[in-house]
Amino acid sequence: MQTVILVLVEVLIVIGLSRLVGLAFRWINQPLVIGEIVAGIMLGPSLFGLVAPGLASTLFPPETIPFLNVLSQVGLIFFMFLIGLELNPKYLSGNLEVAILTSHVSILVPFSLGTLLAVLLYPLVSNASVSFTAFALFLGAAMSITAFPVLARIITENNLQKTRLGTLALTCAAVDDVTAWCLLAVAIAVAHTGSFVKAIPTILYSLIYIGFMMTVGRIFLKRLANYYRRTGRLSQLVLALIYMGVVASALITELIGIHLIFGAFLLGAAMPKNAGLVRELAIKTEDFVLIFLLPVFFAYSGLRTEIGLLNKPELWALCLAVLAVAIIGKYVGTYVAARVSGIDKREASALGWLMNTRGLTELIVLNIGLSLGVISPLLFTMLVIMALVTTFMTSPLLELTYPKKLIKLDVVEQEPEEKETSTSGGEDFYNRPYGILVPVANPNSQKGLMELAVAIAINYRQPAVVYPLSLIELQEDYGFESTPQEADRVITQRRQQLEELISRLEPSEARSYMHPIVCTSSNVARETARIALLEQANLILVGWHRPAFSKNRLGGRVGQILTNAPVDVAVFIDRGQERLERLLVPYSANIHDDLAMILALRLLINRDTCRLQVLQVVAENQVRNELSYELHNVMEQLPQSVRDRIDIKIVEAIEPIQAVVAASEAVDLTIAGTSRAWGIERQTLGRYTDQLAIECRSSLLITRRHSQISSHITSILANDKLEIIN
């Protein structure tokens, strides 16, 4: 097979496997990048080469590795350009003094410990051709790295960007990033020349080039920003010139004697931080780099990682020592510096875990060290394991140290104070506000959904609150949209859209019951369930939309929420009826129909003009279904004025669904439980049935019960009794 064909086949395998494993890691709440790194390792001698050595050598023969190396280097150059591009000085605007102290101590401590560890490792895992100075500098740099891009995404995913911890961590990581790259540049210079003294000219040339880029280069690049302000877009010619500049800058730093990646990073850092320019440049560049080239870099690294080299207990002990030094050095250095700066224990501890994130940045450093021959394949493998473990542990340890329920207490910009009438109430069940969480995917088309939430929630007898929820789903770990600054922009934009939607609600008094929530998420269904528990919502009211990859009408995210949410859920299929006066509940005596009934009763209590028809469909000579004991008790407590508006109708029919469809023609809203009787039962395996969702003539509300139905109505009935007594 021709080499080019073979390389393309390799790329095909690499991209497919990296996406697959990356998505699996996202599913367990880990950054996509860890999965992609693991996928690369799986393709190497650690797994694929071990399990099927013949096939592995056929698919990844030695003659194709240089081609993968070229692709990975090109990917790295443009990835480093993106990192520099996203390094916004705004990240340095908060707590700068604290951040400078914390970040430098968090580098100094692990760097020093790494240097001491080098004394132990140098005779064991290195050779005489490598100078101890270069070896110690590389090991120290590897221990002290914090991956700014991964940390920034973790902060965004956890909605920490507006918290004191988030802003401090971003500032620390930005300072850390610049310092660590400078440290690495010195280590590379020493590795090239063999000693620190001989590396001084290289360091001086590097400083001169940095000074040139930050003065003359920036002046020239400002013209680019002016051009963008004038035209509002980047033409292909301008984009070509920028990419040429990236490559040229990379070549200059390579000629100076540091590495290609520094020139690309420097050009990105020097670029004017015009928001529109940065966004367009990042979006146009990142897709090909992140999807195509970066996985090749991971595969190239994986092919060089041989976990089988750790074949003795003493080598695993050394690996554990490397891991311990990396974690303890970074954590203790950060924690102590933060405490000295006045940060409380919880935030200092969380900052220590966040700064331990190494991820892809560590992998870049290690590959440079291996390519230069400074670190051996054995030490490379140990450090790759260290990079994976430190990145993997960040999210769970952060959650353990700094639970998400505390995040909203630590927001720098406090939310407007809630109206007392809408959310006041103690912990007592009867006084607790009745809460509905309403995920809003499209604020422009879901006014009907919000109006239904208002109709169910507000009755002027019980405190109530409606949470319009807009979740911004993050797609890629390194995508520009996942940066804290871009996430803030999108959150602000989405909040404005929600506010506009709320301002159109009638009656106007209903607007004071709204408490919009906008945040980022990597898993919409899971985050919706989490917020429902956090806000103690009684009901999740979700709008229906057609799933992209399923014929099941209640599939996709709606189906995930419907199935997994730990509270009652109702799915609204809006047929455009403006009024919600005539209600229909087909009742077949199951728990989901009970919830349908209770929501209908709540609508009846809230609106004096509502009427309810309860439809029981029975076969010939069949006894009608009785109300459940719980529902029967509720019905007994209803005021006479409400009971007078309920009409119970029993019809005989062979096809219950057709009877309900026929009855739905005369009503505004049909409320039905997720039961087999109405053709909307969801099955774990086999065919999904959602016939009523397709054929119903009115708007349809599909309910799935999880908790006691009394939570929806008991407080209202208690207050009604009091009114009657008075």
From TrEMBL:
GO biological process: proton transmembrane transport
GO molecular function terms noted in the UniProt entry: antiporter activity
TM region positions: 6-25, 37-60, 66-87, 99-122, 134-156, 168-191, 203-221, 233-252, 258-275, 287-303, 315-338
Chain ranges of the UspA domain: 436-571
Pfam families in the cross-refs: Na_H_Exchanger, Usp
Subcellular location(s) per record: Membrane
Signal peptide: none
UniProt KW Ion transport keyword: yes
Domain Cation/H+ exchanger transmembrane, residue spans: 20-399
Organism superkingdom: Bacteria
Main location: membrane
Lipid bilayer topology: Multi-pass membrane protein
Plastid keyword on record: no
Protein name as it appears in the record: Sodium:proton antiporter
Organism: Brasilonema sennae CENA114
